[in-house]
Amino acid sequence: MLKFKLNPLTRKKLERFRSNRRGFISLIVFCVLSILALGAELWVSNRALIVSYEGELYFPTYGDQYSGTDFGEDYSFEANYRDLAQKWEEEGSENWVLLPLVPYGPNESDFKDGLYPPFKPSFAESHFLGTDKTARDVLARLVYGFRIVLYFSAGYVSLVYLIGVGIGCSMGYFGGKFDLIGQRLIEIWSNIPFLYVVIIVASVTTPDFWKLLLIVVAFSWTGMTFYMRSGAYKEKARDYVAAAEALGAGNARIIFKHVLPNSLSTLVTFIPFTVAAAITGLTALDFLNFGLPVPTPSWGELLKQGTTNLHAPWIVLSTFSAMVTILLLVTFIGEAVREAFDPKKFTLYQ
Amino acid sequence: MDTAEISALSVRNLRAGFATKDGVIVAVDDVSFDVPKGKTLGLVGESGCGKSVTALSIMRLLPNPTGRIISGTIEHHGNNLVDLSIDEMRKVRGAQIGMVFQEPMTALNPVHRIGQQLSECFFLHFPNITKKEAWDRSIEALKRVGIPAPETRVTEYPHQLSGGMRQRVVIAMALACDPGVLICDEPTTALDVTIQAQILDLIGQLQADLGMSVVMITHDLGVIAETCDEVVVMYAGRVAEKGTVFDIFEKPQHLYTTGLLSSIPKLESPGKERLSTIPGMVPSLADMPMGARFAPRSGHPKIGEYLESAAFKEERPELAEVAPGHWVEDCEYVRVFG
Amino acid sequence: MSEKLLDVKDLKVHFPLRSGLFSRTVKHCKAVDGVSLSLKKGETFGLVGESGCGKSTLGKTICRLIQPTAGEIHFQGANIAGYDRKQMRPIRRDVQMVFQDPAESLNARHTVREILEEPFIIHGIGDASARRKKVDALLDRVGLGKQAAGKYSFEFSGGQRQRIGIARAIALEPKLIICDEPVSALDVSVQSQILNLLMELQKDMGLTYLFIAHDLAVVKVISDRIGVMYLGKMVEVADGAEIFKNPIHEYTKALISAIPVPNPRAEKNRVMLRGDVPSPIDPPPGCAFARRSPIKVSEEIASQPGDYVEVSPGHWVEMHPATVADYDSYAASS
Ligand SMILES: Nc1ncnc2c1ncn2[C@@H]1O[C@H](COP(=O)(O)OP(=O)(O)OP(=O)(O)O)[C@@H](O)[C@H]1O
Ligand SMILES: Nc1ncnc2c1ncn2[C@@H]1O[C@H](COP(=O)(O)OP(=O)(O)OP(=O)(O)O)[C@@H](O)[C@H]1O
Ligand SMILES: [Mg+2]
Ligand SMILES: [Mg+2]
After folding, report:
1. What is the DSSP letter of A95?
2. Which ranges of chain B would DSSP assign to H, the alpha helix?
3. Are strands C78-79 and A50-53 parallel, antiparallel or unpaired?
4. Beta-bridge partners for A122
5. Dihedrals φ, ψ of B32, to 5°?
6. In this complex, do B226 and C50 lie within 8 Å of one another by their Cβ atoms?
7. How many CB atoms lie within 10 A of CB C36?
8. Mutation for B interface: C45, C194, C221, C225, most B CBs within 10 A
9. pLDDT digits 0-9 by tens, C202-233
10. Is the residue at C163 inside a domain?
């Protein structure tokens, strides 16, 4: 990996990427958002950051949950830190609680007596983007939903690349009958209607994260094999591969030292667009009710709630803006990557 | 003076270059030459010496936005091409100055029929022409460059033709509107020798028939000797020596010219003998000395003195006329000695 | 000197061209169609011909990078035409190749050191420090210097890259090097440097070259014997001097006369060929050259194949009424 970085060609590409301000800033913003989402417990959670109870400090954010009895309450389920905070505040006791910025969990309903959710955004109650129709905090659901999207995209991209590169590279490199049969099989495979399979699977079992990921990947790796296949095929025909072969290099050496590194570099440019595909794919499935099981926080589910509850426009507006922002960021990054890898396309003649 | 009357194109003190991150790179530095009417001028030099940039400057086709003409004039029919607007320049291209590129496939659009592409040239320059006329003229143009069965060829696509045929089509396109000047940038480098001979013959014949002036750009001194009347030898963006073809081949005065001539493998050599070479390599454009650029490779006995001197760092040598019409870089350390 | 290092007999390489839904083989590209040649130890055999006539295919097949369709390749007495990967491994050390496009033949992701170490790693020669020394020595040998080792190939000029390619080819101290147009992409002044380097290496290491080029003048400089190829077939083979002094095949004559001479006073009398090089995909029957030859013959005669005849010691020509001017007198004498 270190060697990879030192290659001046790669360095030049990185430099070119950095010189595209829009793409570079988008990448930074995207990274910051991702870090915020990965550390969501620290700023969006119904667990307190710090509890000081009878002179001792507790950090409930990560790790085991503390029950109400631990803090002198009369219930044995998980402590409700918002109530504790309020109570100790009113009592003026020594004990105190430091709550996160958004003191709600993604799956937690915050009902109010005599009122029907959804509730409007309210700074006083720290529902910055309001609640959905079961009184769950929209911001909390967006943040945790984004985290799931991130996990999903990461899993999707790695699996699609792993399978696509593996199969595509062997088809392109070995060619012949293997390639021919492989191609026909892939053609047949990619003609199976994806949505039907999802509907059938969803009706037989409740899809969880991994099942859903596998199903989606199973129907999207084929595109990558074709890029990889033609990439490997092209690289294989080049003289430096012939030179390695003339030296007596074996297949493994040629593939891993020569063909793969050289054909992979072009595939890097597809990553942002694959991520965008994963995001829209998961959201669409959730929207259609074939996605992750309730009550997993998900953008698609929020979007559907929003569109059916237009009298509570904060739901649809915030979800929609979040999606557009993320997709725009990813697209800008993708454009910048592509430009950095292929600057020739962008010089014009008068 | 009367140069305008006898020269079809006259380039004066042309400087052209590219804006890069590390500043402006000057690829053509103060180049001047005249293309005599109805004759052929050869531009010869090694890869990267600025031949194509010179040609593209004349056509005002330097890549946008990095490439630009920095200074100098290009005189053609009383116009200074450097000052023309883009629209005026479009009228000059094709109609008055045609160009043939090295790689015929880049000049042809792979998805259009040959006839469509040729017709396009006619539509550009004769807005009133009908489709039928343009098509007929396209066939005529193909016939002129010796393509057999032009009536069927016009309906074919570029990839259906061989390399030599494609280059003929490109020449036909360049000549479609009878330009007075034809610029050929390595027209035969991508072709086989027997096909090269055919194409060079064709250009010579067309020149005789139409009375064109030709600028022949090549790195092959053999092609220069066979086709040119006047020769400009370029080295690292500057003119090293210029004169008639006999001056250059029989009385070369620049050490670079002699070096080039002696490193060509000769047919009459007995074989398996060391070839003479020019030591070293072309300096990179980024760190060019001001003085004679060939000096570090010249092999002149007193070259050490010059490389140390202030003159090498600061003074750019002018061209000196050693015989009528024969000009050489005026620096004794790169001139033939002894 | 007279020991045969390489003996190729009636070598054929036909590429099947597939088309249609069921990928049936409908046509064959006869890139090499019955070529015989032999190389003596320490000599240079120059191979010339126009683009697409099968020179690279022949070179790569001898190097066993392409599977021959038919024929024999005897290297040091053993027929290696049918060898598999494992059997070829020891042979690889003895047969190496230098490619036309120096940029294309070097992996842009590897440093020069990695490129030059590869042969030693593949054949398990030496440990890291020994390999280091060998690479430095190789770089010195081809005139690049040790400091080149840490750079990448695209940081060099075309001539320097070709030196790297040559260094890789001589790394395992081979006996035969196939040079596939090693100087075609280079400028004249660099070209002469590389040709000198190749000749020096040959003298020092006792190498045998199969030197492919399309420029007869270049081939003349470096070769002991020269073969002319046309459309997958060898049409004339002779000593370097002989073939220029006494070319017999019309195609050889045309090639020689087409070379632009760097002398403005040289008179031109060209043998002009008709038309273009025909395609090796389903070539015309009989003598491939007959339809382009300045000697016009009837279609009936053209479709008869020529004979490959030794007209004088070591001078072989494809004999056919359309390829040899005084065919009748040659035919009578033999
Ligand atoms: N678009 C560009 N941007 C920056 N530099 C360029 C560009 N095009 C050409 N150059 C530089 O300008 C110099 C002259 O290039 P030019 O193409 O005129 O060479 P040439 O004499 O035509 O060579 P060749 O024989 O290889 O065609 C070269 O050093 C090249 O690196
Ligand atoms: N792998 C292949 N599959 C099919 N046809 C091929 C293949 N390789 C080469 N050919 C064809 O074989 C013929 C001979 O090609 P080859 O590369 O040997 O020519 P060459 O003499 O080396 O030409 P050049 O001077 O252009 O390098 C060409 O027509 C080419 O299209
Ligand atoms: Mg050029
Ligand atoms: Mg070849």
Report:
1. -
2. 3-6, 51-59, 86-92, 104-107, 114-125, 131-144, 150-153, 163-174, 193-210, 221-227, 245-250, 255-263, 303-308, 310-314
3. unpaired
4. A127
5. -130, 135
6. no
7. 16
8. C221
9. 999 999 999 999 888 899 999 999 999 999 99
10. no
Of C220, C254, C275, the CB nearest to B267: C220
Which chain B residues touch C243 with a CB distance below 8 Å?
Answer: none
Q: How far is the CA of C315 from the centre of ligand 3 (A)?
A: 41
Model confidence over B108-148: pLDDT tens digits?
A: 888 899 999 999 888 888 888 899 999 999 998 898 888 88
Domain total in chain C:
1
Tell me, in angstroms, the distance from the centre of ligand 4 to residue B170's CA: 25
What single string gives the DSSP state of each residue in A218-269? HTTHHHHHHHHHHHHHHHHTSHHHHHHHHTT--HHHIIIIIIHHHHHHHHGG
Q: Indicate the pTM of the whole model.
A: 0.86
Closest partner CB to A246 (pick from C85, C97, C109): C97
State the best of B281, B285, B298 to mutate against chain C, taking most chain C CBs within 10 Å: B281
Extract the tokens encoding A305: 């709630």
Task: Give per-residue pLDDT as tens, C58-80.
Answer: 999 999 999 999 999 999 999 99
C193 lines ligand 2 (CB under 6 A): no
Radius of gyration of chain A (CA): 26
Say how many residues make up chain C.
334
Q: Is residue C167 a part of any domain in this protein?
A: no
Give pLDDT, residue C20.
53
Q: Are B40 and B213 in contact (CB under 8 A)?
A: yes
Which atom number of ligand 2 is nearest to the Cα of residue C49? Answer: 21
* Residue showing tokens 């489709």: B131
- Omega of the bond prior to C260 within 30 degrees of 0, cis? no
Q: Which atom of ligand 1 is nearest to the CA of B48?
A: 19
Tell me which of B15, B51, B54 to substitute to probe ligand 1's pocket, judged by most ligand atoms within 8 Å of the beta carbon.
B51
The answer to whether residue C315 is domain-embedded is yes
Give the start-to-end residue ranges of the domains of chain B: 3-235, 236-266+289-338
**How many Å apart are CA B291 and CA B312, to the nearest integer?**
4
Tell the CATH topology of A140-346.
MetI-like fold (1.10.3720)
Domain hosting C19: range is 4-94+172-333
Share of residues in chain B with pLDDT > 70 (%): 99
Q: Report how many Cβ contacts below 8 Å link chain B to chain C.
A: 134
CA atoms of C199 and C209, how far apart (whole Å)? 10
Best residue among C18, C29, C67 to mutate for probing ligand 2's pocket (most ligand atoms within 8 Å of CB) is C29
Residue to mutate (ligand 2; options C12, C55, C69; most atoms within 8 A of CB) = C55
- The residues near B167 (Cβ < 8 Å, ≥ 6 apart) are B100, B104, B187, B188, B190, B191, B195, B199
C-beta of residue A155 within 8 angstroms of C-beta of residue A148? no
Which chain C residues are within 8 Å of B219, Cβ to Cβ? Answer: 187-188
Distance (Å) from the alpha carbon of B146 to chain A's nearest alpha carbon: 31
Q: Which chain B residues contact residue C218 at CB under 8 A?
A: 265
The arithmetic mean of pLDDT across residues A79-97, rounded, is: 87
How much is the mean pLDDT over chain A? 87
Q: Give contacts of C259 with chain B, Cβ < 8 Å.
A: 193, 222, 267
Asked if the Cβ–Cβ distance from A244 to C118 is below 8 Å, we say yes
Q: Is C254 inside a domain boundary?
A: yes
Q: Which of residues 330-349 of A touch B (CB under 8 A)?
A: 347-349
3-state helix vs strand vs coil in chain B, percent to 5: 40, 25, 35
CB contact under 8 A, B194 and C261: no
CATH number at residue C256: 3.40.50.300
Token digits of residue A148: 């799931």
Architecture in CATH for domain B3-235: 3-Layer(aba) Sandwich (3.40)
- How many Cβ atoms sit within 10 Å of the Cβ of residue A287? 17
The interface predicted TM-score of the complex, written ipTM, equals 0.88
